[in-house]
Amino acid sequence: MSILHDLAATIEARKGADPDSSWTAKLLAKGPEKCAEKFGEEAIEAIIEAVKGDRAKLVSEGADVLYHFLVMLAARDVALDDVLAELAHRQGQSGIAEKAARPKG
To answer: Considering all CA atoms of the chain, what is the largest pairwise distance in Å, rounded to the nearest integer?
Structure first.
């Protein structure tokens, strides 16, 4: 099991936890929209560090992005394995060809 699977399992376990005792539970209790908003904030912070070229801060923000992505998935009951299966499906395809094959609209 990977660290991402371990983290996803921990997040899933915190769904029913007391929001006063867990940051993850507190975030999940605010609903999927807030989880998505927080993911977006963290993604922007990672972008800023990437542009600045600060490797250490980018690594830290990257970890935040991954955590908040997993929280956002959990808030919508989407399993990490579903996302990984989609990546596996796309593996070996040209990104251009994959994008062109997506349904329009």
So the answer is: 47
